[in-house]
Amino acid sequence: MNFLVAMGLAMTKRKVDAISSGRERSQNWHEDQTKYMLEWHIDYLKKQHTRFKFRKPHHLLCADALNKKFAMGVTVGRVDRHYRYHKENWKYIATALSKSGNSFDNTRCLVIISESEKSTLCDRARRLLNKPIKFFNEMKELFTGSSADGSFAADQNTCMDGSDGSDSDDSRDLIDLNCYTQHEDPLGECNSPT
Fold first, then answer.
1. How many CB atoms sit inside 10 A of residue 168's CB?
2. DSSP calls for 3-69
3. Measured between alpha carbons, how far is residue 17 from residues 6, 9, 119 in Å?
4. Which pTM was predicted?
5. Fewest beta carbons less than 10 Å away: which of 34, 62, 97, 129?
6. CA 25, 37, 96, 99 torsion: positive or negative?
7. Hey, how many other C-beta atoms are within 10 angstroms of the C-beta on 92?
8. Do residues 110 and 104 make contact, with C-beta atoms less than 8 angstroms apart?
9. What proportion of the chain, given as a percentage, has pLDDT over 70?
C-alpha cells in the first residue's frame, strides 16, 4: 500500500512537471519595448495589403527585431501574446468611445465615461478605462480599420445626387447617360438565326 501511494505521488509529480514545462515564464515589458513592438507592427502593416492579418511568422520577425535592439530574449509566443493583449485592450477602448455620451480627453489620454456606464463594465475594462491609456495613439493607428465599421458607407440611391460645390455644371455630364453614343447593330435589326 505504501508503494502505491509513493507511485501515485511520483506519477502526479511527473504530470505537474509535464504541464508546467509547456508554459513560459511571464516577462515584464518596459514601456520602450512595448512602444517599439507596436511601432514595428505599424511600420510592417503599412507595407502590406489591405486585408493583411498578423500571424506567427510576422511575430517571429518582430521578436528578432526586439532581440536585436533590446537583447530581451523574447519568443514568438510572448510577442504574439503581448500583441493580442493590446488588441483586446483596444477592443474595450473602441467600444467605450463608440457609445454616445462618452468622450476622450486628448491631453490626458483618458476616456470619460459616466459612473452609471462604469458600473456596467467588466473589471478589466473598468481598470483600463479609469486611468490614462498608455500607447493610445499607437493602438489607434494599429488597430483602427481592422474591421468594417461602416464609416465610409454611402447610400447608393443618393450618393450621386449631391453637388460638389463647383460653379460649373461639368459634373452633371458624368451622370447623364444620354451623352454617350448608343450601340448600333451593323446588320440592321437583330442577329437571331430564324
1. 8
2. HHHHHHHHHHHHHHHHHHHTSPPP-PPPHHHHHHHHHHHHHHHHTS-TT----HHHHHHHHHHHHHH
3. 17, 12, 41
4. 0.63
5. 97
6. negative
7. 19
8. yes
9. 62
Written as nine digits, the cell of 132 is 490614462
C-alpha cell at 37: 513592438
Element spanning 82, H or E? helix 76-98
Q: Using CB atoms within 10 Å of the CB of residue 93, give its burial: 0 to 12 exposed, 13 to 18 middle, 19+ buried.
A: buried
Please give the Cα distance from 133 to 70 (Å, whole number). 24
- Determine the length of the chain: 194
For residue 167 the three cell numbers come to: 460653379
Residue carrying the nine cell digits 468622450: 103
Going from the C-alpha of 53 to that of each of 32, 89, 124, the distances in angstroms are 24, 18, 25
Sorted by where each begins, the domain ranges of the chain are: 29-143
Question: Greater confidence, 184 or 138?
Answer: 138
